């Protein structure tokens, strides 16, 4: 019976196993969760506070470097194609090229780096370090683009693009690293 299922999946859907379907579903699920979390926001100008980075961190850790990258790339692709998946229902290239674009463009890279590092070590402190590095990638690219397209002043860009998010993202970082570490502990027992 398993061979029949595999043959059908391979011929009509283009995947070779149930495992492949599960991977695709997880990639899509994290992209959708990131889109939903973008709508949970505290409006600030020019970049709002959202929950997006929480799911970027978790996608890299849970999905690994390749699938985390694909999930966040799918999220960006959906927005670029016109689906209102960015903060405030934003979509399109204007959102990607605007003040928030650097953060958005950093999501796939951050998920990749987190996934890679977590594959090296899954110790609680290393997971926290890995996710911290992922957040720094998001903050760095986000602040750089914010400076070039909006403020044209590094001091203002760092204040509005990094410092204002610090407390909020520390909470998300602690939550994401705790959730992932707890998941690992429970699966080992």
Judging by the overall fold, what is the CATH architecture? Answer: Orthogonal Bundle
Task: Please give the largest β-sheet.
Answer: 2 strands, antiparallel
Instruction: Determine the structural class based on helices, strands and strand pairing.
Output: mainly alpha
Spans of at least 5 consecutive residues with low confidence: none
Distance between the termini: 32 Å
Q: What percentage of amino acids are in beta strands?
A: under 5%
The number of helical elements comes to 7
H/E element sequence = HHEEHHHHH
**Residue-averaged pLDDT:** 91
Instruction: Supply the number of structural domains.
Output: 1
Q: CATH topology, which one? A: Arp2/3 complex 21 kDa subunit ARPC3
The proportion of residues forming helix, as a percent range, comes to over 70%
Number of strands: 2
**CATH top level label:** Mainly Alpha
| Largest beta sheet: strand ordering | 1-2
Describe the global form.
globular
Rg (CA only): 18 Å
List keywords for this structure.
189 residues; mainly alpha; 2% strand
Plain-language structure description:
This protein has 189 residues and is mainly α. The chain has one domain: Arp2/3 complex 21 kDa subunit ARPC3 (Orthogonal Bundle), CATH 1.10.1760. It contains 7 helices and 2 strands. The chain has a two-stranded antiparallel ribbon. Strand 1 and strand 2 (49-50) form a beta hairpin. Helix 3 packs across helix 5, helix 3 packs across helix 7 (154-188) and helix 5 packs antiparallel against helix 6. It starts with a helix and ends with a helix. The model has no long low-confidence stretch (mean pLDDT 91).
